[in-house]
Design a protein that fits this description.
The protein has 49 residues and is mostly helical.
Length: 49
Amino acid sequence: MTQQLARVTYLTDERTIERKIKELYLSIELNSIFDKKDILELYLNKIFF
C-alpha cells in the first residue's frame, strides 16, 4: 500500500527499474513519517473510484 501511495502521489506511470527504486525509497520514507492508518487514509483520499 505504501509503494502504491508513493507511485500515485509522487511518480509517473512509466515502468522502469529507476521508478521502482524511487518508489521503494519513497515508501521507506513514508513509513518513517506516517503510521499505517495514516497511509491508508492518504491512499484512499488519493485514488479515484
